[in-house]
Amino acid sequence: MTSEESSRPEPIRDHKAVEKLLGRLINARAIVHIWHPKAQEGHLSTLLALKPYSGLYLDSPPESVLDLYHVNDDLQVRSQLDGTDIRFKTKLQLHSRYEGYAALLCDWPGEIHHYERRLTFRVRVGGQKTAVALDLDDAGEHHRGRLVDLSLGGFGALIDPGAQLSEGEMLDCHLEIQGQSLSAKAQVQSIEPMSGDRFARIGARFVDLPPLRERTLSKLILELDRQSIQHSRGL
C-alpha cells in the first residue's frame, strides 16, 4: 500500500463557511498574492478585514504597481493556510482605506477553492478477478476496463484508448473486485495513453460515496493490502 496525497480543489460556497475561512486567514496574518490580469506576477498583500455579504479589504499592493488597479478589475487572490492552498476570484470595488492603511475594497467571493490535502492509502490490484465497468453519465456510453489501483478517494484503471472520455466527466462505475461488486459515482481526473497504444490509463475520483459504501470499500482495501503483504512474503 502506498500513500497518496490529493490536492484537488474543494469549492466552498456556503457564506458562513467562506466567512470562517477568510477569518482564519486574517487571524493567521497570512500573506496573500493578488494576481492582476495585466501583471506578470502576484503582488504581495494581506487580508485586512471583512464586510460580510458586501466585500473585503485587501492591503494595497506596492505603489509601483498600483496604477494597474482600476475599479471593476477582476482579481485572483491566492494564499496558504495550515499548508493548504486557498484561492478565490473577486472584483475591485474601489480604492479605500482601512484603519489608516491604503486598501482595496473588493467584492465578496462567491466561492473559495480550498486545495485540501488528504492522506489516503492506495493499494495496487490486479488479476482476472478485478474489473470496472464505466457508464458515462446521461450519455449511454459503456466501457469496461481493468482496475490497477484503488483507494478511498478513487481508482486507476486501464481502458480502451478509443474510449471517448474527458477530464471532468461524471461516470456511473461498477467495480468488481474478487467476487465483490461496488457501485459508485466518480469523476474523471486524468486520462493518459500507455506505451504501445493498447490501453489508456484513467484516474477517477469517487463523488458522494455513501458512508456505508465507504466502510465497505475501506474493508476491501485493507483485505487487498493484507493479501498483497502475504503474497510478497510467499505465504
How is this structure best described in words?
- The chain has helices at residues 15-27, 63-66, 211-232, and strands at 2-6, 10-12, 31-35, 43-51, 55-59, 74-81, 84-98, 101-106, 112-115, 118-124, 130-136, 142-150, 154-159, 170-177, 180-193, 200-207.
- The two termini are 17 Å apart.
- The chain is elongated.
- 21% of the residues are buried.
- With 235 residues, the protein is of the alpha+beta class.
- The chain contains three helices and 16 strands.
- The strands form two sheets. A six-stranded antiparallel β-barrel has the order 11-12-13-16-15-14. Strands 3-4-5-8-7-6 form a six-stranded antiparallel β-barrel.
How much of the residues is beta strand, in percent? over 45%
Number of strands: 16
- Structure annotation, total helices: 3
**Gyration radius over CA:** 23 Å
- Largest sheet: spatial strand order: 11-12-13-16-15-14
Give the rounded overall mean pLDDT: 82
Low-confidence stretches: 1-7
Estimate the global geometry from the Cα principal axes: elongated
Q: How would you classify the helix and strand content by structural class?
A: alpha+beta
The sequence of SSEs as H and E is: EEHEEEHEEEEEEEEEEEH
Query: In whole angstroms, how far apart are the ends?
Result: 17 Å
Q: Into which percent range does the helicity of residues fall?
A: 10-25%
